[in-house]
Amino acid sequence: MKLKILLISSPQIESISATYPLGLCYIAAVLKERNYDVEIFDYSKRPYSAKLFLQEVKKSNPDFIGFTVYSCFYNAIKEMIRILRNEFDMAKIIIGGPHVSALPAYSLEDMHADFAVVGEAELVMPEIIRRAGERCASFDDIKGLAYWSGNSLKFNPGCNLVLDLDRLPFPDRGILPINSYNETIGHIFIAKTPVAPILTSRGCPHHCIFCSTHVIHGRVFRRRSASNVVDEIEYLIRKYNVKEINFYDDTFSESPEHAIDICKEMTIRKLNISWRTAVGLRLSTINEELLGYFKASGCYQLSFGIESFSERLLSQIRKPISKFQIKEKIELIRRCGIETLGFFILGLPTDTEQSIWETINFARNSGLDFIIFTPLIPFPGSAIFEDIYNSKNKQLINWDHFNFNYGFKFELSKIPAAKLRKIYIFSYLYCHFAPKRIIKIMMNILFLRKINFLKIIKSFYYIIIKNLCN
Length: 470
What we know:
By secondary structure, the protein is α/β, with parallel strands linked by helices. The chain has 2 domains: 153 residues, Cobalamin-binding domain (Rossmann fold, 3-Layer(aba) Sandwich); 288 residues, tm_1862 like domain (pyruvate-formate lyase- activating enzyme). The protein is 39% helix and 17% strand. Helix 13 links the parallel strand 15 and strand 16. Helix 8 packs across helix 9 and helix 15 packs antiparallel against helix 17. The longest helix has 17 residues. It is globular.
């Protein structure tokens, strides 16, 4: 009899949009290759209540349940596990994801799980399931794993990384309805639908002090072959009629040669596809040759983190780029006919009113087509988190506050949180009501760009209303 595996994405409480759970779909594909029966319950897209959740899990009757844990949903998942332990204590519970990878032993004990995986779970999770299913007592040789040996908590140091990404199967897209996930990270406009996310690489070698992505994907940059990436794009077009690709790489252009190879392969195969970098790329990697290949292969928008327009702060957060280079790269992208979306962080350590207004004024006058401001969140695994919480009792931390939509719950700069909230609200109004940007938004609407109206309403609520009420 096949073992049954249930993978769960939690209700995305206080979230503007629900994005496709690509990581769970990768794990599902690997588990199915090993002849396991797999389901995914994505509660960002299905009704949730404690009663309904318990009924659905009992009906599924899994042998193992896996959770991806993000800090902002930590308490929600902890409560889901509590419900399962009280009413359905049949399945072994495996937790992973960014929060768990940063705090594996703490998460295992506090959430009352059976196993906690550090890093990428595709190759290690089948081994955990195999051994546990065969009642093997030894897990000592599985690196990056926290688990129980009797009543003792054990942790094997390390981080699980898939070195050869081409060996992974494509994510199991058939397990969830792809047409239900047309939200895109950081944007209310979509060129075409259906939209599908793709990862072409993993790992970021950089050391930005606010970033924690390395706790999952490490600092070793690994890339899929261009043919493997474009095979997946062709499959998505053929199987699901996908018309837009969102590259979810932490830095799509980290290797310009790799990005060019993908674009060349897309062009050779004459794929009629639009694409954008949903998460971002590093401006320092951009040049005219690369942009030419981007445009020719269907790129319509590039997103990138600028974070601040203060060179003092850029140096402090370990982003080695000058104000002149930022301006130069944005102008170069715009000359190539590609839209620009810039991310900025308000409330960085040692941020002052002067440096924040320098950033906001630049954003308004920069020529960027779209702008996103976010509060600074000290995510576990980041250098900022280590500075603040390393010696503090984790039980006293309110993980619900690690959510961009909660506003400014952390006073990490020289500006009081109450004042930052007002500046945050003003920054959106000030920058998006600039005449050129209003014209750009109207052009998107008039030329029938797909618009996520629900996301517009949610964004307005979280940016304006909720911050005014705090």
